[in-house]
Amino acid sequence: MISGIIFILIIVGGIALIVWYLKSFYAERENRAKKAEEHRSKHGGECILEWSGSLSSGAPDAEFGKLIVEVPKKRGGGAACFYEKGLVLEKKRLPYSEIKDVLFVAATSNKKYTLKQAARDMGVLWIYPKKGATIGLREMSYQFDNEIMEKIKQGLGF
């Protein structure tokens, strides 16, 4: 009898915890979407990358405008190019109007002795397009700078 009551309490507590977690997750997501919409309305409904630092010295893009910041790859050629109105990453071209969310996980500067520690402490900028696969700029592949990645996230309004 008592074990049945305890079991029911555990089940009810687990359900309450799951509901609380989901509500907070979707509330944060909705908050980021509101911030992005406010950002767009500041620029007449147009999605642009606001940047207060120095601009990259690359050539402008015909579709996306002037080059704002360039994040080079660690190995080989190429870079993630953030233009005024869109992102060019290898062969992918993504206008900022097609982004529904951006999340940033900062890289830690602790010493990494194992592969597991390196993977856990690796920074990544997640870009979620409205259609298609998620884009991740990882510290493993790109010359990662936490400050620049945070400025990109904020500059897009998220």
What does the model show?
By secondary structure, the chain is of the alpha+beta class. The chain has two domains: 45 residues; 89 residues, PH-domain like, CATH 2.30.29. The chain is 36% helix and 23% strand. The strands form two sheets. Strands 1-2-3-4 form a four-stranded antiparallel beta sheet, with no helix packed on it. It has a three-stranded antiparallel beta sheet with strand order 5-6-7. A hairpin with a 5-residue loop joins β6 and β7. The mean pLDDT is 84.
Question: Key terms for this structure?
Answer:
158 residues, alpha+beta, PH-domain like, 2 domains, four-stranded antiparallel β-sheet, 3 helices, 7 strands, globular
Please tell me the total number of domains. 2
**Cα gyration radius (Å):** 20 Å
Q: Distance between the terminal alpha carbons, to the nearest Å?
A: 51 Å
SSE order: HEEEEEHEEH
Number of helical elements: 3
Strand order of the largest sheet: 1-2-3-4
Low-confidence blocks of residues: none
Mean pLDDT, all residues: 84
